[in-house]
Amino acid sequence: MSAVSEPPADAWVVALLALPGLGPNRLSQLTNACDARAAWKALCDGGAVSVAGVRSSTVEKWRVCARVMSVADHWDAIQSLGIAVATHHGPNYPERLSNDPEPPQALFCLGQPGSLLSGSIPTVGIVGTRECTSYGRRCAFELAAALTSAGVSVISGLALGIDAAAHQGALSVPEAGAAPPIGVVGSGLDVIYPKQNAGLWANVAKRGVLLSETPPGVGPERWRFPARNRIIAGLSDAVLVVESHAQGGSLLTVDEAQLRDVPVGVVPGPITSNAAVGTNRLLADGATPILGVEDVLALIGYTPLHVVDGSDPTSAPCVLLDVLGWTPQSLDQICSRVDLSTAEVAAEIQRLISEGLCVQNGVWIERVR
Prior knowledge:
It is a single chain. By secondary structure, the protein is of the alpha/beta class. It has three domains: 9-80, no CATH class; 103-300, 3-Layer(aba) Sandwich (Rossmann fold), CATH 3.40.50; 316-367, Orthogonal Bundle (Arc Repressor Mutant, subunit A). Helix content is 42%, strand content 12%. The protein has helices at residues 9-17, 24-30, 36-45, 56-68, 71-80, 95-98, 134-149, 162-171, 198-207, 224-235, 250-259, 277-284, 293-300, 316-324, 331-335, 342-354; strands spanning 84-87, 106-111, 123-127, 153-156, 182-184, 209-212, 238-241, 264-266, 288-289, 358-361, 364-367. It has a nine-stranded mixed sheet with strand order 1-2-6-5-4-3-7-8-9, sandwiched between helices. Strand 4 (153-156), helix 8 and strand 5 form a beta-alpha-beta unit. The termini are far apart.
């Protein structure tokens, strides 16, 4: 009978992370004096285990769970999901995070990390409020699309609002020659949150990579999102804030960026908008104003080698979008400015509405993307 093979070193790390309440900081303390396998053995055998601020009752819960868990089976289950694991100081760990002030002890990866995580492709994190305006959504979409076209990978947390708009913009660019997107999430990669973004998760993983320091099977918890923000900041050459309320969570990402000397750019917003209070305050405090993609490229000191543009500027939809601009117009006003029949304009407008590029309120037609 053949001997049972020993699980790899990474398997012990992720097994520890799967214990209840054992997050990255506690894992770092637990493995400070010994490797993950030895720490696991100490838990199972009743050896001395001490983590600052952790009650003995919590350690006892770890012991109970560790004694009934098969590390090998747990590792095989992760592999069966197609999820790769990169542990700190391991060969596949992102270079950008290697010397981070608070590096993740392990990252779970779904997709094609490749050069995305080596530091060879420029990156910009785009963050903002979940409760964004159509203006903020449009800005995030268009800036992300332009950056992706220029060869810059867009990073977001795949939340609702600005995050989702940024990755929708990135994915709107034809794949050939475009920079792949990076998503950093606060739950296990097999636990989609929010569920409305299921399609977005799948497409980001297909075109680029999804990352999480949360083990598979673990759902979102409040503390994991601020922790996730430091990873976005650490992976980014610059962080771009599109909209933030006065106490918005994206301001935590700004704090993490500043801690790492990552430049911060901010899209100005209307002074009458609650969704722009936080961003406008950042500008007043000295953040770099972003008025277009050129400002973002200047912020990271990057000159694009190419620009991908899959649209035909002479096509009817593109002409109509240019004519619409960002001011609501009636059908008659649009018809007066194009060399198309009323029927043709009406048909194209309906197509643009169905694609989510325009909306109609009464007689007024307005571009939203």
